[in-house]
Design goal:
Elements lengths: L1 H24 L5 H10 L1
């Protein structure tokens, strides 16, 4: 049961990170892709 809880927590955290980055780079989690357009513009 703990493994399922850890997997769900990881999935939720990844969902939050992608949701936050969606406006910047389309939801890429790779920092180079996420912050590259911010540095260029």
């Amino acid at each position: 049961m703990a493994l399922v809880a850890a997997a769900l927590a990881h999935a939720f955290g990844l969902f939050v990170v992608v949701s936050i980055g969606a406006n910047i780079s389309g939801g890429h989690v790779n920092l180079a892709v996420s912050f590259g357009p911010v540095l260029v513009s």
